[in-house]
Amino acid sequence: MTQQDFSSIRSLADVTPELMTKFSEGTFTDLIGLKYTELSADRVAAEWVVTPQQFQPAGIVNGGVYCTVIETLASVAASAWLGAKGTVVGVNNNTDFLRAAREGKLRAVATPIHRGRSQQLWVVVITDEQDRTVARGQVRLQNLANQG
Questions:
Q1: CA 46 to each of CA 17, 60, 108: distance values in angstroms, whole numbers, following the listed order
Q2: What is the pLDDT of residues 38-70, one digit of tens each?
Q3: Candidates 18, 38, 47, 71; catalytic one
Q4: Using 50, 70 and 90 to split pLDDT, how confident is the model at 33?
Q5: Does the N terminus or the C terminus of the chain have fewer Cβ atoms within 10 A?
């Protein structure tokens, strides 16, 4: 798919999970294998399979992978909610690592805590195949209105 195929997209509010996965090809989240499964203004979900390339030297998923997924899902969700009114930028990411993961499929779900005129706050929970929380984080995002 070429960039021209995305020219009709006015905002992430117009994007399906499949298109967002395609749109992410060649990015850092593509390198870790993130696949979107839900995308709406109220909830974004994605999953990926743990691979050794995601490990830290101790043989568990590096915390930076969790931070990346949390930041990404919160940003996509916040952008989908704000729609064509503007863009969002992350201003804080606070991630807690609760359980080590060495294998399997992980799932992340972003839901809003607050969506205001100037800022949004989203929580993202990452779970394993047994539905145990592996990590959780919250991201504060600044809403930037379109200029002009």
A1: 8, 20, 5
A2: 999 999 999 999 999 999 999 999 999 999 999
A3: 71
A4: very high
A5: C
Could you report the per-residue pLDDT of 70-85, keeping only the tens digit for each? Answer: 999 999 999 999 999 9
What is the maximal distance between C-alpha atoms in the chain? 51
Q: End-to-end alpha-carbon separation of the chain, Å?
A: 30
Cα–Cα separations (whole angstroms), residue 148 to 35, 91, 135? 34, 24, 40
Residue 57, amino acid: P
Determine contact, residues 71/89, Cβ cutoff 8 Å: no
Token pair recorded at residue 70? 């949390």
How is the chain split among helix, strand and coil, in percent rounded to 5?
Answer: 30, 40, 30
Distances (CA, A) of 119 to 43, 72, 75, 92, 130: 17, 16, 12, 11, 34
Q: Is 25 designated active site?
A: no
